[in-house]
Design goal:
Elements lengths: L5 E7 L13 H18 L2 E12 L8 E11 L3 E9 L5 E14 L2
Antiparallel strand pairs: 1-3, 2-5, 3-4, 4-5
């Protein structure tokens, strides 16, 4: 966690995350973004599930690169939250950006 409004997850692109073209599979990047969106709402004190999502891929993630997945809450409602996620490589190049609308299912006890 970066602070009370942002969550950071880091990981490396491994052979298991590659598609047949030798770059990180889009589904792998989406899974990272979706996971961080959920963790961002947990950091804000609520559990949630994804209602809607949208992702834009800008640049390929390559084998061995270190990825930073950063989530920030832009709407913090009682029933829904909106989380923006960006994925960058170790050179701070933006690889993907995503937006998630999350439905609140309960409070973190």
């Amino acid at each position: 966690m970066l602070n009370e409004k942002e969550v950071l997850l880091t990981t490396k692109v491994t052979e298991k995350s590659l598609n047949p073209y030798g770059i990180a599979h889009g589904g792998f990047l989406f899974t990272l973004a979706d996971s961080v969106a959920g963790l961002t709402t947990v950091a804000r004190g609520t559990y949630s599930v994804t209602l809607q999502s949208n992702i834009h891929y800008m640049k390929a993630a390559k084998l061995g690169e270190t990825l930073s997945v950063i989530g920030s809450c832009t709407h913090d409602g009682s029933r829904t939250k909106v989380v923006e996620v960006k994925i960058e490589n170790q050179d701070k190049q933006l690889l993907a950006s995503a937006s998630f609308t999350m439905f609140v299912t309960g409070k973190v006890e």
